Amino acid sequence: MEILAFGVQADEKPLIEKAFEGRHEVRCLDVFLTEDTAPIASGYELVSTSVNCALGNRVLQTLAAGGTQLVAQRSTGFNNIDLEVAERLGMTVARVSSYSPYSVAEFAWTLGMAVNRRIVRAANRTRDFDFRLEGLMGRDMHGRTAGVVGTGKIGEAFTRIAHGFGMKLLGWDVAENPACVALGMEYVSKEHLLAESDLVTLHVPLMPETQHLIDAEALRLMKDDAILVNSSRGGLLDSRALVAALREGRFTGVGLDVYEAEAGLFFLDKSLETVEDDTLARLVTFPNVLVTSHQAYYTREAVGQIVDATAANVLDYTEGRRSQNVLVPRS
Ligand SMILES: NC(=O)c1ccc[n+]([C@@H]2O[C@H](COP(=O)([O-])OP(=O)(O)OC[C@H]3O[C@@H](n4cnc5c(N)ncnc54)[C@H](O)[C@@H]3O)[C@@H](O)[C@H]2O)c1
User: Fold this and answer.
1) The pTM is what?
2) 152, 175, 197, 301: which has the fewest Cβ within 10 Å?
3) From the CB of 317, is ligand 1 less than 6 Å away?
């Protein structure tokens, strides 16, 4: 059976082909699954998708009408898929429930330290033979407080690194993680965490309860010189409220790997077009903001594990097995 994979990055394609070798043929498309591209899936029982594919009602209806039975999402997050509609249409939906949490945790630290130590500005200067230090002063992380919002797999990996820096550890989650407690993490209210942390990092999933978890009020609670990192999902953070706070000159730095309106922008070359999103356009102009395009997971290890798990999910489906990766089981 041939699988149709949407949103495949060039580096990812050989890994996908290898993972499915000897099992299934794969047709890899670089386009994302949207209302416009959904008709391509007609006749494909098996479809694989990535984070910036939009599987709302109409797309799922089109897939179902074309005979698609399985959606194998190549990520942990699945906020881009309407699971209720998929279930109603009798489709199976699977995701990759875990892969290297180090990929995202290490990247969150990369963003946090890059804004702290002004790495982009420094690199731009030395390229121009400007070797001044003015404006490049950062802060030691040792002895400061890290606030980890969401202490699951990625939050825990982030916490281990923060512990290595010698930081005080605050956590907020619906459930305490014993491994974080063992590292000395104190679980506190969200308000306490925001008010006390020098670095706040987001690692909860995006769901209705966490939409705009960091809104104007939450930003107001944070220290004026805090560092904020979001490498989870853009919708956790009210980006307009963030722009307003940054305009007031607040925060040492903000590192964003995700953006609430990233679909249709991230992973694509928009350099020759006029970007119409004024909030994003403003965000990238702040000297203390660093935006990357959802690349935190993008390591050889993590992508390898994602495609291997996706191939296993497809095999489980075709052989009628049920696994912990299944979000909507076969009806
Ligand atoms: N930028 C990237 O490339 C990238 C890659 C992978 C994952 N992510 C994001 O990171 C998130 C976390 O991944 P993970 O593997 O650590 O997941 P996980 O399930 O191990 O951890 C999530 C944590 O959030 C907590 N949580 C859930 N709902 C909550 C709520 N309403 N309030 C407070 N806490 C809540 C859970 O208890 C859990 O401890 C994913 O959901 C995904 O959105 C981003």
Assistant:
1) 0.93
2) 175
3) no
